[in-house]
Design brief:
- One of its GO terms (biological process) is signal transduction.
- There is one protein chain.
- This protein is α/β, with parallel strands linked by helices.
- The chain folds into 4 domains: about 15-200, Leucine-rich repeat, LRR (right-handed beta-alpha superhelix) (Alpha-Beta Horseshoe), CATH 3.80.10.10; about 210-345, Ribonuclease Inhibitor (Leucine-rich repeat, LRR (right-handed beta-alpha superhelix)); about 390-430; about 440-610, Rossmann fold (3-Layer(aba) Sandwich), CATH 3.40.50.
- It has 17 helices and 29 strands.
- A 9-stranded mixed β-sheet has the order 1-2-3-5-7-8-12-11-10. Strands 14-15-16-17-18-20-22 form a 7-stranded mixed β-sheet, with no helix packed on it.
- Helix 16 (about 555-565) links the parallel strand 28 and strand 29 (about 565-570).
Amino acid sequence: MNDAFEDLKKLTHLYLENNRLRTIEHCHTRNLFELKTAILSHNNLTIKNNEESSKALFKNSTLIEKLDLDDNQISGFCFYNKEAIPGVDNATEIILSNNKLTSLSNVHLHDTSYKKIKLYVSNNNITSLFYPNESETSDKFNNNHVEVFADNNPLNCDCNLHTMIQHRNKANRTIEFRNWTIHMDNLKCNEPSLLKNTPIEIFESKTYKCLLNESNINYAKCPDNCSCWRRPSDNSSTIIDCSSKNLTSGPNSIHLLFGHQIELNLSNNLLSSMPLSSQSGYGNVTILDLSYNNITHLTHGGLPAKLKILYMHNNKLIKIENNVLGYMRNSLKIKELTLHENSFECECDLEDLSDDLQNKNWSQSEKEKITCGPSNRQVYKLSKQELCPPNYGLIITSCIVLAFVAIDICIVIIIFYRYEEIIKIWLYEKQWLLFWVTEEELDRDKYYDAFISYSQKDHDFVVNNLVKNLEKGQPPFKLCVHERDWLAGEQIPTQIIQSIENSKRTIVVLSSNFLESDWANIEFRTAHRRALEDRRTRVIVIKYGELPPIETFDRELQSYLSMYTYLEWKDPSVWSRLRFVMPHRTRSRRPQCTRTITIDNPDEMTRETHL
């Protein structure tokens, strides 16, 4: 393409859009003297960023009015056009939207004859619209008036953005800086993330703050879970924002990152108390925002020496200590304090606050918003008598009532301790106040936690599973097992009765073998009748294995199973349920009716009718 336009010196319009052009240089356009329009959009052009005027693209095209390079791969562009043409309106459009520009410093418009240039750089990767210093900006654009359209770029709203905001024209929605104008339409922050999608035009020069990061913090560290900012308009403060982080306490220490003052924002957290001013760095805090927390006390120890503004609204303050009010009343530094939307009660504790609101120079709006009680009465309008009215009649009546109550309590206590056992028996018979008649009291003479009733054919299951886990588990239980704890030579019926009477529970291992055992059924009936006599649930039935139809059971056992729940051995939660229905408190005592012996050979004492 080197010679394609060599003889087209009269060419005025050049359309090469929607092709696959990759490069174009000065040698291709040097003879296009009368060119007015060049449309090279929608290609793959990567124009070299060459600042030599002798090699600038379209350098000799002094009449050019529009240069469209939209949607290419351009990362840098140079434009030289020094020769003015008499009688020609020196204005042109340069369209570089949808390219790969990362900064306006990639665009060079040196020594152009045009007085007005419209530069379109929308939808690029431009993060900043300013050069590092003003002299470079002046160099690049000389005396041209450059109008820039740069919307939809990933702008970094850092501290350098303050320069742009300072030259904002609100009426025109533009930035007017030296000889160029930037339109703010759809100019939004992309970074930092806290400002993402924030329109540039809402920022004010005096209040604009920029995020500090590791690159501009050389000797200190921003507290964890917080962001640190500075305000370029005064450069006097470090702004530490820890708001809305679900914090339960403030940072352990804070440091000056910039300036000589700290503005600390801890609002909308879960703080229940104020951070102490003695903590490292807190002495330099001038503005402290503790609003929207759960703070219940405003303490003198939480007031930094340099404090000027304190926001305490929307907390759970009940009262303000006198020493705090005295300190704030006499302080020449504190200019503002907010206390509205707290939990003040209209009581004597608010007398000092009411006086302070009436005498001190509080803002009228804050005065009116500080209320107390469920009816939200304005504190500053309440008199001492309204907050703390004397009520001698109530005091006298209360004293008399308390005296009679105390006498009655003493009489009841004396009677109870004098006739404790009789009272407990009577209460139990009436089924009244059973929480006083504890299981420990009723079963104080029972030595065993449980007697296990089972068929001798289920011996292995009972000994290796049930007994082992209950006696060695947590908590351990003391069990009565006939093979181990019955006395040799004693009659079986007597042993059954004594074992049941000496046990707080009877555990029945209900199996098909159990149903075939006469002695096992006698043990169940004895335990069941004893429980009915005691009017307590003492029998624990564990269903073990497959059972025949319930209609074939002993009638008394049928009746019991139809009225009470029982445990299933195959239930995964059987152990937790079994331990729950066992006695919850046990004490080791000597048996009242039997004594325990150890048998070397349990098989010699097998009950015949259990076989």
